[in-house]
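Open question from group meeting: does this chain pack into something compact, or does most of it stay loose? Before anyone orders reagents, we agreed to write out a predicted structure and look at it together. Recording both the input and the output here so the notebook holds the full record.
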Amino acid sequence: MIPLAERYRGRLPLTETTPIVTLGEGSTPLVAAARLGESSGCELWLKLESLNPTGSFKDRGMTVALSKALEEGAEAVVCASTGNTAASAAAYAARAGLPCLILQPAGAVALGKVAQARALGARILAVRGSFDDALGAARQLAARGTHVLVNSLNPYRLEGQKTAAFELLEELGGPPGVLALPYGGGGNTCAYARGFREAGEGVPRIVAGEAAQRAETLATAIRIPEPFHRAEAEAAVAESGGAVVPLGDREILAAWRELARREGVFCEPASAAGLAAVLREPPAGERVVCVVTGHGLKDPEAVERHAEAPVEIDADPDAIAEAA
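Structure tokens returned:
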């Protein structure tokens, strides 16, 4: 597989001498969701960004951000994160041979993501406060010149993430009618819009599913009270003729279960927010791509809380048949 930085080098801020820091990201599957599409009356596709190397879409931007950090002589990187950015930054920093510092809001990050960052050797500090507090501290530290910030405020991050739009155009032969995705910080929404524009194609109607209660939602990946990219993201949504759809946790969980049980796609709850927004008012007859942003193993606690528990029985065929 050709890393996305090599595949799209001419469309990225890379030079011939930029050292590419890669784990084989990009080229993620686009799969038809026939059963959900039939029941909702549209042609439904799933872009499985959850199958990037660290299990989320963040890897698309991180390969470019770390490649440029290495080229520009960085000595360390820092990020604030609700989990997926942390796992991705830790992995690509390790690949680049750079120390990685992660600031996470205390008690607000799913176990699977913390485990990834810990295993990858990042220094993790739990900040007393919200994601916004952690991000503010990370920005102040980066301003001192000791660390390079690799949150989506880093312009190289969105440059890498826009490549998902290029892939969709190649796979579908043109833009879909509707692009649905979760809306946390808003960076991914901006990146897709940028990619479609740069490819000279129209931006599909963007449906962005956000948590109605941003600061408290169980969908930890989009638990971001004040999206940094709000203005640009919501402008892109409006210009596309789309909508930002506030979702209750019950709607997000219902879509999460539907993806798993009807299509065999196990994602973290936040990753089902795009589908949840589409299912609220299905666009009949249209081609819809739902971006699945993070793998289900990112948030094993969600399974413990919201999926059926195993049943313990004797190793007896009659007991098994009765319980099945």
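Observations to bring back to the group:
The CA atoms of residues 216 and 223 lie 7 Å apart.
The mean pLDDT is 95.
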